[in-house]
Structure formats: C-alpha cells, structure tokens
Q: What sequence folds into this?
C-alpha cells in the first residue's frame, strides 16, 4: 500500500476536500452553461441525457480520477507516469496528464472571459441599470458589453489575476473560507430566484420545458450531435472531470477518507445547482418572450429582467453576480492547479513563479476569446449546428465535447482495464463488494462504449466541420 503524501500539502479534513471539489464543480458551468445549452439543444431531452451521463459516466469517472490522484500524489502528468511505472505500463500515459493540462489552459482562457462578464454585471445590476428593463433593453446592454473588447479584456485580466493570486498561495488557504460561506449563500440566492420564477406567468411552461422531453422538437435534430454529445460534454464540464482538476484535488486527500461517498456528495450538490438554475431561468425566458436558444448570453439577458422587476432586485441582482463570480473563482483555480503543480515538481519553480507563468499563458489565450465576440467573430458549423462566436465556440467544443470525454475515458480504461484490480480495491476501500463491482462494470464498459458510440455517430452523420464565411 502506498503511503505517499503530496509535496504540495493535504486538505485539513474530509469536509474541506468536499468543499473544494464542490467549489471546483459548481461554477459558470452550472449557472451560465447548463441553461444555455439546454435551451440550444432541445430542453427536456437534453436534461435527461445529461443526468444519465452524470450518473452512468460522471460519478464513476470522478471516483477513478480521485483514486488515481490520491495514489499518485503528484501533478496529473507525474501521477500518470508514476502509476504507469508501478503497474508495469508504458510511461507515455503521462501524455494523458498533458492532454488535461492543455484542456485546462483552453477552458480557463475562455472561462475567465465569461467570469469577466459576471464582474461587469455586478456593477451594472448594482447601479440599477436594469430597473424596469424589458427584454429588448437587457439584450442591448448585453450586446454592448460583448462588443467592447477593451472592457472584456479589462475584466478578463482582473479575473485571471485573482485566480493566479489564490493558486500562487496554495489552493487550500483562502479557498476553505471562501467555499464554506459563499457556496451555501449562492444556493440560497438561487432559491430566491426560483421563488421569483414561481410568481411568473410561465412557471409551469418552464418546468415542462426542462423536465419533459419534447420529441417533436427533436425531429429536425440529430440526436447524437445535437443532444447526446453536448449533454455528455456538459456532464464532464460541470463535474470538472476529464482534465486532472479533480485528480489533483484527490492528491491532497487523506488516505482514510471514502472516495465513493465524497463523490456522491459532490455530484449531487453540483447537479442540484444546475437544475435550480434551470428552474429559475426558463420561466423568465418564456414569460418575457426570450428565445431559449439565444446562446451564451442567455442568463445575462434573462436574469436582469427579473432583477429589474422583483422587490429589492438591485440588491439581489448585485449579490447574485458577486456570488457567481466567487463560484467561478473557486472553479478557475482548479483549472490552473494541475499545470502549476507540474511546473513546481518538474521544473523546480517556486509556486508563485509557476502560477504567474501558467496564468499568463491562459490569459493570452483568453484574449483571443474576448476578441471572438467582436473583432474576430465568425460563423461556422459544427456537426450540423451553426455557431456564431468563432474561436470561443471552437475552444468550448474542442474541450468539453472532445478533450474532456476523451480524457475521462482514458482514465476509465487505465483504472479498470490496466491497473491491477488489487490496486483499485485497495484505494477505493469498498472491498470486493457489490458497490465495487458496479463501479468497475460502469467504468469498464458503459463509459468507454458510451463515449465511443456518441463520438462515432457524431462524426458519421455530418461533415463535422465547415466554415461558413
Ligand atoms: N466545473 C466548473 C464549472 O462548472 C468548471 C471547471 C473547473 C472545469 N474545473 C474544471 C471543467 C475541469 C472541466 C474540467 O463551472
């Protein structure tokens, strides 16, 4: 049995790990990305497939990632190399770590830009810009924001800077405090929003849209490329799996903590936040005649209308975007951490220097995203669907729909087909129970076969990539 500890530290308790991992999982993915993808990809059917992906692939893969992290106790790159060597496998498994680091840079780069929108909205709501605003006005305010590269770059830089600051001091310090108070506060505020949604005319329509798959609306869609693939990608994105973020958090977890129960807590918290966000948003979208398939601006256009109408809306609106920014912050640090730990371990850099270097690379990439909403906007089609925001959409699709599922499946294959059964039994601490067998079965068969079927079908039915103009 390995008794290694990480040179980067250890969580002070099991709860801190759960808070940190939930902090990583809950973020823009739940509140910004989940609703707009649901709206773009057909509502209830998308939600259903997303939930299936979380249960049948997400949770088992999260367990595998934490297991690997805790056994290796290093950055994902070095963890994969070490574990491969210990199991008598090819050390090139370290490239799985590299795939994750690359995905992390790309995701962080655009994540920071969107988090920047959130910061901009703290000020807009706080100054009462939305009081009494209708859908047209909120749409204009949002479009003005994303067509101003200077403002986007400014907030992007601020957000990247605060991400770097936390990572440079070691993730466990400030994070513990931030997550303990802010996450529950975000949850409560979402309940307030749901309360407002219940008072709108179209509350039931919103619920139906989310929970009852409308197979007629799917008639013109390709099930695989329009529903399954984005739902799969969203499950991975939202749970922070497939790139080593949860793996590195697992490497700071003490040996006596149960991986299985921790994962269930994290996944349930993450999924409930996404569903609550959906329940809060769609009734507003329908009541005010917005189009659910409006894309990445959806929450920035719909929620401000609600804040402009409800009692104490300026206060709640401002608070909401503040909490959303914190949720994004506790997620973004987990995107940077794998690269930073690698620089510290293998390049012998100080944590501070490593954080600034890695953060700067992500910042540079993010500049491209910020410009893809204005100067460099172009349209293209992916697997039959038209995408409007050029590089932003390319980065997003490449990472969530391709790199994360691929990374996750490789983790699944490594843990269940290649590592010795004894190592995983030892690490999961479930013994040779039914629970262990279910886990091993899902990760051996369901995850790889599921992802393969979705990938192949997506590629087979369409010219997957063509530029329109
Ligand atoms: N899960 C986060 C969110 O929903 C984003 C995130 C953090 C992430 N770390 C990740 C996504 C690692 C994929 C991989 O906002």
A:
């Amino acid at each position: 049995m390995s008794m290694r500890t990480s040179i980067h530290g250890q969580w002070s308790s099991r709860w801190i790990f759960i808070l940190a991992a939930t902090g990583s999982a809950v973020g823009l993915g739940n509140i910004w990305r989940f609703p707009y993808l649901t709206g773009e990809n057909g509502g209830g059917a998308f939600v259903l497939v997303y939930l299936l992906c979380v249960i049948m692939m997400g949770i088992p893969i999260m367990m595998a990632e934490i297991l690997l992290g805790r056994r290796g106790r290093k950055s994902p790159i070095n963890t994969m190399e070490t574990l491969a060597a210990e199991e008598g496998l090819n050390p090139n498994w370290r490239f799985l770590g590299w795939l994750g680091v690359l995905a992390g840079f790309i995701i962080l780069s655009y994540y920071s830009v969107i988090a920047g929108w959130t910061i901009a909205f703290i000020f807009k709501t706080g100054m009462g810009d939305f009081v009494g605003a209708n859908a047209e006005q909120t749409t204009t305010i949002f479009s003005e924001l994303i067509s101003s590269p200077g403002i986007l770059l400014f907030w992007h830089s601020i957000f990247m800077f605060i991400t770097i600051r936390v990572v440079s001091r070691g993730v466990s310090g400030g994070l513990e405090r931030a997550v303990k108070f802010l996450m529950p506060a975000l949850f409560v505020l979402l309940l307030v929003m749901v309360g407002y949604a219940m008072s709108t005319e179209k509350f039931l329509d919103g619920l139906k849209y989310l929970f009852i798959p409308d197979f007629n609306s799917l008639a013109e869609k390709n099930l695989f490329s329009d529903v399954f693939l984005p739902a799969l990608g969203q499950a991975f994105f939202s749970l922070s799996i497939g790139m080593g973020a949860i793996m590195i958090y697992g490497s700071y977890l003490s040996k006596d903590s149960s991986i299985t129960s921790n994962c269930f807590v994290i996944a349930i918290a993450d999924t409930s936040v996404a569903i609550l966000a959906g329940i809060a948003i769609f009734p507003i979208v329908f009541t005010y005649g917005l189009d659910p398939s409006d894309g990445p601006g959806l929450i920035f256009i719909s929620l401000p209308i609600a804040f402009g109408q409800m009692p104490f809306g300026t206060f709640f609106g401002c608070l909401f975007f503040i909490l959303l920014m914190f949720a994004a912050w506790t997620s973004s640090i987990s995107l940077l951490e794998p690269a930073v730990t690698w620089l510290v371990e293998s390049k012998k850099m100080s944590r501070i220097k490593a954080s600034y270097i890695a953060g700067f690379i992500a910042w540079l990439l993010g500049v491209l995203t910020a410009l893809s909403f204005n100067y460099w906007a172009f349209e293209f089609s992916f697997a039959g669907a038209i995408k409007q925001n050029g590089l932003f959409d390319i980065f997003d699709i490449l990472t969530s729909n391709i790199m994360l599922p691929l990374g996750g499946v490789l983790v699944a294959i490594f843990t269940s087909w290649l590592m010795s059964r004894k190592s995983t039994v030892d690490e999961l601490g479930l013994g040779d129970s039914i629970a262990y067998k279910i886990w091993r079965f899902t990760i051996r068969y369901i995850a790889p076969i599921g992802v393969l079927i979705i990938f192949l079908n997506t590629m087979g039915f369409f010219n997957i990539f063509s530029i329109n103009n």
Q: What stands out?
A: The chain has 18 helices and three strands.
